[in-house]
């Protein structure tokens, strides 16, 4: 029995900042952002939207009424929680109207959490093949105005419906993991934004990739030629490219070109959105499927998941017959092109405009399908 991704979708907020405008405002050469980091635009979120609204909006696109009766596991992977106790998963479960006899919870380890959730969902469906699981990877990457990490911000959510005999991708049982206790990026509970040792984080990312890649070749007896594409966690699109190039010395030039062309197809959407933290690997996967004509059913796609701190995993997916008919390419592209460009002043104002920290009874006016319309007693009330 194959188990995997039956449906997949993403959601980003309606506003973005062009990286040329950010570079000009920060007295930086725009090529540093466009070429040096590989980012063209950055998604920006208003205070009335959060991981719940992003996750619900992504999931709504793929969860049918019939699915709502079959889902009994909802997992949200995130490092942008609103609450130290209650999970975003149980709120999204309620907003979507999924049948009540379900297990709903949140998982965390930096940008790795979505993969942990996906693998838990796979194991659950393996034990209960007639049931389905909803996995959401949602985050808001914010480092602060005028910080080193500012050009690598972004936000959004990816939703995946996991089932037996999936229509898009089977998840192979070939995971290789790597853990290393290191402080490259972390956010203690008294910090609004992460603390980051940016250059160390680049180093640990590449080292983690080469470790799991080498281990994968050994354990699974594969070579690079067994992979139609390698897909990476994308904090910014140059990062995965640096890791990919780190394994080029063992490959022919033709092989390098093939994998780098697939890489270019996998980063189309992330260039437009920025970092989704735990959703970034899966936005890369959607971008690859939407933008590549070279893939075919039966192909194996390698996935490198990285969470600072650091936990990483390499595993693979197998493309299913007829997968192309399940993709929503036009809707995905329309979502990105219909967004509104912010001026630098609007971006900075939106960045600093936050939900009140003092308890009270507040009303908000955001008519987006999923948005916070009220905050009272620490409870966020959502449009839906
Ligand atoms: N034209 C073209 N390229 C230029 C340029 C110009 N005018 N000026 C600089 N560049 C290039 C540099 O050569 C460099 O390229 P290489 O890395 O290939 O050498 C690139 O632009 C970046 O330049 P710097 O290293 O000087 O940039 P920086 O000091 O501002 O730091 C950063 C970059 C470390 C990524 C920083 O933005 C940061 O800390 N970001 C947040 C942390 C992060 O994303 N880490 C990634 C790994 S951790 C992870 O994956 C988890 C996660 O999601 C956070």
From TrEMBL:
Every Hydroxymethylglutaryl-coenzyme A synthase C-terminal domain range: 178-248, 256-379
Provide the top EC class: transferase
What Gene Ontology terms describe what this protein does at the molecular function level?
hydroxymethylglutaryl-CoA synthase activity
Q: Which UniProt keywords apply?
A: Acyltransferase, Transferase
Q: Which Gene3D superfamilies match?
A: 3.40.47.10
Give a yes or no for keyword Acyltransferase in this entry.
Answer: yes
Among InterPro entries, the record links this protein to: HMG_CoA_synt_C_dom (IPR013746), HMG_CoA_synth_N (IPR013528), HMG_CoA_synthase_prok (IPR011554), Thiolase-like (IPR016039)
User: Pfam families of this UniProt entry?
Assistant: HMG_CoA_synt_C (PF08540), HMG_CoA_synt_N (PF01154)
- Family matches, as CDD domains: init_cond_enzymes
What PANTHER family does this protein's entry cite? 3-HYDROXY-3-METHYLGLUTARYL COENZYME A SYNTHASE (PTHR43323), HYDROXYMETHYLGLUTARYL-COA SYNTHASE (PTHR43323:SF2)
Q: What is this protein called?
A: Hydroxymethylglutaryl-CoA synthase
* Species the sequence originates in: Candidatus Enterococcus moelleringii
């Amino acid at each position: 029995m194959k188990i995997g991704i039956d449906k997949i979708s993403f959601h980003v907020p309606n506003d973005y900042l062009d990286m040329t405008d950010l570079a000009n405002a920060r007295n930086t050469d725009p090529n540093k952002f466009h070429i040096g980091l590989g980012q063209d635009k950055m998604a920006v979120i208003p205070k009335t939207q959060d991981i719940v609204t992003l996750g619900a909006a992504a999931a709504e696109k793929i969860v049918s009424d019939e699915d709502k009766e079959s889902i009994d596991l909802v997992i949200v992977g995130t490092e942008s929680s609103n609450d130290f106790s209650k999970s975003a998963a149980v709120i999204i479960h309620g907003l979507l109207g999924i049948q009540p006899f379900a297990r709903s919870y949140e998982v965390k380890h930096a940008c790795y959490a979505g993969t942990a959730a996906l693998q838990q969902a796979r194991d659950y469906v393996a034990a209960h093949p007639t049931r389905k699981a909803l996995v959401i990877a949602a985050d808001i990457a914010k480092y602060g105005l005028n910080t080193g990490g500012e050009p690598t911000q972004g936000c959004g959510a990816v939703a995946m419906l996991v089932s037996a005999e999936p229509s898009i991708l089977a998840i192979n049982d070939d995971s290789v993991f790597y853990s290393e206790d290191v402080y490259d990026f972390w956010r203690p509970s008294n910090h609004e934004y992460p603390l980051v040792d940016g250059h160390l984080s680049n180093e640990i990312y590449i080292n983690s990739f080469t470790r799991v890649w080498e281990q994968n070749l050994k354990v699974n007896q594969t070579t690079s030629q067994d992979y139609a594409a390698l897909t990476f966690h994308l904090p910014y699109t140059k990062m995965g490219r640096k890791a990919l190039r780190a394994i080029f010395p063992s490959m022919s030039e033709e092989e390098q070109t093939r994998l780098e062309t697939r890489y270019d197809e996998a980063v189309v959407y992330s260039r437009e959105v920025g970092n989704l933290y735990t959703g970034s690997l899966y936005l890369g996967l959607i971008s690859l499927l939407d933008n590549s004509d070279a893939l075919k059913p039966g192909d194996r796609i390698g996935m490198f998941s990285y969470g600072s701190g650091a936990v990483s995993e390499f595993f693979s997916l197998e493309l299913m017959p007829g997968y192309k008919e399940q993709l929503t390419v036009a809707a995905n592209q329309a979502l990105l092109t219909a967004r509104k460009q912010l001026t630098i002043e609007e971006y900075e104002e939106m960045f600093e405009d936050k939900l009140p920290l003092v308890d009270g009874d507040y009303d908000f006016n955001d008519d987006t399908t999923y948005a916070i319309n009220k905050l009272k007693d620490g409870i966020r009330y959502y449009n839906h």
